[in-house]
Write the structure tokens for this entry.
Amino acid sequence: LEQHAGKETFVALERRLRVYHTALWGRMPPMRQAPSDGRMIVTRRTSFASGIITVPASFPGHRGSEADLYRAALAHLGAHFAYGGALFPVGQLKPMQIAVVSLIEDARVETLAMRDMPGLRRLWQGFHVTSPDGVATAPSLFSRLARALIDPDFPIRHGWVDKGVRMFHEHMDQIENPGLSRHIGNLLGNDLGQTRVQFNARDYVVQPVYRDDNLGLWDFEEEARRPPQEQIEFETNDLHRTEDGRDPRSED
């Protein structure tokens, strides 16, 4: 129906997008259209994992050029491949902290990409349309911080957003280090977690629309392989036992 209505879909644009990405970054990772899961759940953001790009068939509800949106999305993914590092370990981070670390990493790789190719700012900045005002929900604050980090003229009217911008610019000498995103994002996420701002990770969708879902930044498989806490404690205690099974720590 979208194709018959004249809507620009991934299938219609695929060849041009491949040429565009190759011209911009000198390489074209494997790219696939996001498969349907049969439950009418629409994939809303691009994604990447193991070097493979997954792209939505279309972006329902988006107003504007679909071709520009796909180009912005692929340019952003290319920045991750060009300037990113190893997968971030999840560790003890909470979902809100993971979201903020991912946001800072998005801004970091885009800053490096715009340093080398200044024209990318015009491509990306137009998709940052959030308002500086309104109710301070977690998603709205994320959108404001994302815009403030790419738009120097964006008015900052919230202390948390101001702190994020200041920390980012104060550490500009470390901009090439992916660990910067982990450091800043962890602190900002912890600060936000101390407030009454609620964050629903299940319903959260990354903004603006051209940015990926950030799942490709994290080593969730390592977290799944981690033994349960009970097993960790058992193994740790077992190291202290003597051959006869006694625990010398319990003896005076």
